[in-house]
Each structure stands twice: as C-alpha cells, then as structure tokens.
Design a protein that fits this description.
Layout: E1 7-13, H1 25-39, E2 43-49, H2 53-61, E3 70-74, H3 79-88, E4 93-98, H4 102-113, H5 122-143, E5 148-151, H6 154-159, E6 170-172, H7 179-182, E7 192-197, H8 205-221, H9 224-227, E8 232-236, H10 246-251, E9 255-257, H11 263-266, E10 269-274, H12 284-291, E11 295-298, H13 300-305, E12 314-316, H14 322-331, H15 341-357
Parallel strand pairs: 1-2, 1-3, 3-4, 4-5, 5-6, 7-8, 7-10, 8-9, 10-11, 11-12
Helix pairs in contact: 2-3, 3-5, 4-5, 4-8
C-alpha cells in the first residue's frame, strides 16, 4: 500500500537515535510509527531534537516545511513549536503524538513524593506541584494549534484529551511492540515460579513507589508465605536511598538483577508485578511481559486503564493484601491464554494512522 501524495516530516527526540536508549518506552513507541511509514511505503523525513523548545525550533528552521503534507511531532509539547508550524507550514496537517496524559501523570509524581518513606525535600515537592500546572498549560497550548492529537491509549483519550480537544481532533493509536523488538522476545521457555518487578537504571518517584509498595507487601507476612508456594522474586534496576537498603532486600530474599534487556527476565518468569497505580500513558513493559508469555499482576487502578486487548493476560490484586497477592500468583498456574494482543494493537494503530493520513 502506498500513497504518493503523502510526504511527512517526523520530528523525534535525539534519544530515539541512541543505542543507549533503545529500550526506553518512548523509543519503542516512536519505532512503531517508523515501521508503519515503511510498511505503507510513505515518504517520511526524520529530524531529531534534544527536547528543548530552542532545538525543536532550530531543526524545524533547517527544513523546507512547505514540502510536507503532514508534520508529526514527538516529545515536544511546546505551544511555540506548533505556532511556528502554523505560520511556516499552513498547508500541512500538524499532528502531536501524546505519550502521556501529562497533567494526570504529574499529579502522580506529587502523590509518589508524598508516599512513604516521605524523605523528599520541600523544594522538590513544590517543584513537582508546579509541574502539574506547567505541563497542563503546555498541553492546552498544543491542542489550540494542532490538527490532531494522536493519543497512546483509549483511556487517555476518553479521560484526558477529550476535555482538552474536540473529539474529532483526537485519535487513539495504541502502543504496540515493533517487529525489531518482538524478534528479541523470548517465548516457549519453561516457566519458573518467578515474579519480576521491573525498575529502572535511573529510578524516579513512580518507580520508587512501585518498589516500595512491593517491599511493604512482602514485609507484612515475610517471604515464607510465598516461598512455601514455590515463588521467588527479582527486582531489576538501580536502588536509590528512598528504597529499602540492600540488607532489607536480602532479609526478604529478594534478588536484584541488572540485565541488558527486559526480555532476559520476562522469558523464564511466570509473572511481572506492578504494585503501584501511579503513572499514565502506556507502560510498555506490560506488553513486553505479555509478549514473553508472562502474566501481569497489577494494582486495580492500573488494570482499569489498560487496553481491552491486554486484560486476559492481567490479574488484579490489592497491594495492601498478601492474601489477594498470593491468590493472584496462584491464578498464573491456570495456563497462559492463547492470542496475539500485540498484533491486535498494531492493527488498531495502523487503521487509525491510515485514516488520519488518508492512506488507501
């Protein structure tokens, strides 16, 4: 399928081009659109910026914007950028990829800062409170000037973007795992009673909250309750001073692991565990775990925000209740459901992109 009338300028962060950031959620999401352009044989040019308004305007200034029918902006929700595009590319359809419901996401940063162990300074808390208004104002400024917002999830579309932009100017193109990553996933392995808590090489408040809630859950009863059922747990990523210390992890026999790719952990694991509801957008590790045939055991608020295609592979539990957690672990013994949710999400994203770009 090709459409010779479409010529698209794709503006992305420099991190997308860096091998160091290959497994960032935003990198994988952007790669999905690059794959789509290639599959549809669309003419597209890529410009990279460093996420500041100055560099975005600079790279746009280096391009002949009149040559493009569409401009797709990623990771740069600055009103000044879209005002510039309106002036310099009046004939182009301007599209903004929304990786997050930013205002709600920033509210969760504040909530995470106020969650135990509550060791953050007042200046950091005030800064995060200020970010709620700042990022919200940026999103409002963007929607005034774009032709279309390309939301990452249906939940974000229905509960956030619908209040900022007319329904006719919002589209859900869900995250899917591009083929280059699917080829790295590990399937068909003999599963162990292994639960994975995915961290980060640079944990922020949201990651810290998830790790701390999981640790608190195990601390209520001790690890013997789960070990007697045959389970062991691994937490990946770096440890910060706001997480339990190494001795505390060792006392609960929680292993720590730093791996090159998340698929090394998901491949043999029966489940990945998410004890925090905080954070919006699309948690890419959820789909990666499912693609590796690992269940996702998650808090109820997060479960409600997930795409319908993923729900058969996800199990709700109450992070305050060891009993519901053990029950969720036991449910993973029932066998992993058949299906290809990643293919369904890709088909949905392609369909919406086809409609948006008038690809026939």
């Amino acid at each position: 399928m090709a459409n010779s009338s479409v010529r698209l300028l794709h503006v992305v962060p420099k991190s997308f081009l860096s091998e160091q950031h290959r497994y960032l959620g935003s990198t994988k999401d952007i790669a999905g659109r690059v794959q789509y352009f290639q599959d549809r044989d669309l003419r597209s040019d890529l410009l990279a910026h460093d996420k500041t308004v100055e560099t975005v305007l600079s790279v746009l200034g280096s391009a002949d914007l009149s040559a493009y029918t569409h401009v797709l902006i990623e990771k740069a929700n600055y009103g000044a950028v879209f005002r510039h595009l309106r002036r310099k590319a009046p004939g182009a359809k301007i599209i903004f990829r929304a990786h997050n419901a930013e205002t709600l996401h920033r509210v969760d940063y504040v909530r995470a800062c106020l969650s135990p162990p509550r060791t953050r300074g007042m200046a950091e808390i005030v800064q995060n409170i200020s970010n709620v208004a700042w990022y919200g104002a940026r999103d409002l400024s963007v929607v005034r000037h774009v032709d279309h917002v390309l939301s990452i999830s249906q939940w974000d579309t229905e509960h956030y973007w619908r209040y900022l932009a007319p329904k006719t100017r919002t589209t859900t193109a869900p995250f899917f795992l591009p083929r280059q990553y699917v080829g790295e996933t590990r399937t068909g392995l003999r599963k162990k009673q292994l639960g994975i808590v995915i961290g980060s090489s640079q944990p922020g408040p949201l990651i810290e909250d998830g790790v701390n809630r999981f640790f608190g859950l195990l601390s209520k009863t001790g690890v013997e309750l789960y070990e007697n059922a045959g389970w062991r747990f691994v937490i990946s990523g770096a440890r910060t001073k706001r997480m339990p210390n190494a001795a505390a992890f060792k006392a609960l026999r929680i292993q720590r692991s730093n791996v090159e790719t998340p698929y090394e952990l998901f491949g043999p694991a029966r489940a990945t565990l998410i004890a925090s509801d905080f954070g919006y957008g699309f948690k890419t590790k959820i789909l990666e775990a499912i693609t590796c045939e690992a269940f996702v055991i998650c808090a109820p608020g997060l479960y409600r925000r997930l795409p319908q295609e993923l729900l058969p592979y996800c199990i709700r539990f109450d992070p305050r209740s060891p009993e519901t957690f053990l029950d969720a672990l036991n449910q993973t013994e029932n066998g992993f459901p058949s299906g290809t949710p990643n293919n369904l999400l890709q088909a949905s994203a392609y369909q919406e992109m086809d409609r948006l770009l008038s690809v026939v």
